[in-house]
Structures are given as C-alpha cells and as structure tokens.
Amino acid sequence: MKTKLGMIALLCAALCIAGVALAQTQPREANVNVIAGPIAQKITPNSAEVTWETNSPSSTILKYGTDPNNLQQTAQKPWGQQTHHVEISNLQPDTLYWVVVQGESGRELGRSNFKTAPAGQTAQFNITHGPSVEQVGPDSVVIAWTTSAPSSSTVMYGNDPNNLNQKAEAPWGQQTHRVTVNNLQPNTKYWFAVQSGQAQGTGQTAQSQPFPVVAVSSGQEAMKFDTR
User: Helix (H, G, I), strand (E, B), or coil: what is residue 19?
Assistant: First the structure.
C-alpha cells in the first residue's frame, strides 16, 4: 500500500513539474490580440503618433516603412501596457507609410497606413487629437476626436477599408467629437474613418485614414480604454 501511495506521489510531482515546464515554454503573448488600431494621430510632414489597444498587457513594438512587404524601421517601448502610444519621426512629407503591430515572437497583430502632411502645409483647420477608441462592445464602438474649430461629427465605417459605406453622426458644432456606432456584429473587424466638415470660420474639412477595430465577442463586457 505504501509503495502504491509513493508511486502516486511521484507521479503527481512529475505531472506538476511537467506542467510548470510547459507553462514556462508558452509565449506570454500567445493570446494577445489588438482590439483597436493601429491608429495614426498628430500627423505632421515628418512625424506621427501611432496608438493601439490590446486585450491584455503586451509588448509595444511597431514596424513601419513605405513598403508594406518590407518594413525595416522599428519603434518600441517597454513591455506591459494595454494602451500603446509610439512616436515615429524622420518621415518624408506627403508619403504613404504602413505600420504593423508585432508581438514578442514577431507575430503580426494588426496593420494600417497613413499619409504624412505635405511639406510647409499649415492647415487652418485640422484634427488636433485622435481619433481614439474610447469603448468597444459586442455591438457598438465609441470613437472620439478633437478639432481646431467647431465642425461636424461623422464616422464612416464598414468591413472593407476601401469601401466605408456606412455612416454614424453626432450634431454639428462640437470641437470635442464623440460618436457612438451601433448595430455592429460581435467578434467582427470593422474599419472606421472620422470626418469633420463645415468648420466654423473656414468651411474646411479634416479627416483621418481608415483604422481597424474588432467588436468584442457576444456576452463579453464592453472594454473602456485610456485615451489620455
């Protein structure tokens, strides 16, 4: 009897050791996914800030460049955030850049693109902060941004970044814009672009490049993010 109990104890110990070893070999970002972004903000002729949100703490690694199949430049920050902000500089004016979020293993987590502003351009009216994703739920997303003058609040969206054929709006006249997009499908990637027009004093329009957001799974609580 003692021999049998001893064998069981040894087996349990071996299983525990094997479990610990297996856990140690599993990458800590195996289940990390990008919920929102990457989103380009504060775009100038030579710089931009790129933000994104992940479903759990992860690395902050961004690859970028003008060739989507050969992104040679890297910007990163220490591991451990869910809200990620990276500044990139020394960009060329009026140029299309691709940005890719990577995990520690090099796995691609999300991508988008943006165009830098033309050299010497001083816009009378522009987006001064954002767009940012404040909340993501199973069937809705809240998107916010600010502009340099009161203007309209429009979000165009759809499943194809080249065909944003659905629209959500808020009343005209805000500088801090906040639009809730409803009736989304759970666990589905959507692309969004914000637009503010009829700006007070200039009549100009400012808009963002499309950026991706994934609606959370049905039954999952809405996620609220730190948008600074």
Answer: helix
